[in-house]
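FIELD: query
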Amino acid sequence: MKYGRIYNLRTDHDLTIKTLSAEIDLHRDVYARYEKGFRDVPTDVLIKLADYYNVSVDYLLERTDKKEVNR
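FIELD: result
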């Protein structure tokens, strides 16, 4: 599965892979593989990304187009 939303969010926030991967405590090569769909993103990383961007995990997984987090 390709994770286009995590790529789009990163570029929309003008972040490099190196910067974002450091923010969420991942090696940049691992994160790059997630964006390209070479590896599935683990649940804990999806949660970190959702919290970082303040969006829902469902939004990241393209299950919804609503970015809002229901808290």
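FIELD: remark
Residues 20 and 26 are 8 Å apart (CA to CA).
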